[in-house]
């Protein structure tokens, strides 16, 4: 992609990698689809790093602004999907 992912300077290298992995999962859902369980695992790790709703919204909004992919909509669609579903936006 031709944009940079949002991250915070106080995160560890592992946390940055895991947040980028979540945003790559959001891209995958839009571009080719992804298994629900894998996506939700990455989302749970993202939430462990960014537990606050306000911070989550701010970071996801930053990502959506540069990528045009909505992490919020991807998470909502995955939550509504059946347990072993392959979901595409």
UniProtKB/TrEMBL annotation:
<comment type="similarity">
    <text>Belongs to the UPF0223 family.</text>
</comment>
<protein>
    <recommendedName>
        <fullName>UPF0223 protein BLL40_06680</fullName>
    </recommendedName>
</protein>
<dbReference type="Pfam" id="PF05256">
    <property type="entry name" value="UPF0223"/>
</dbReference>
<dbReference type="InterPro" id="IPR007920">
    <property type="entry name" value="UPF0223"/>
</dbReference>
<dbReference type="InterPro" id="IPR023324">
    <property type="entry name" value="BH2638-like_sf"/>
</dbReference>
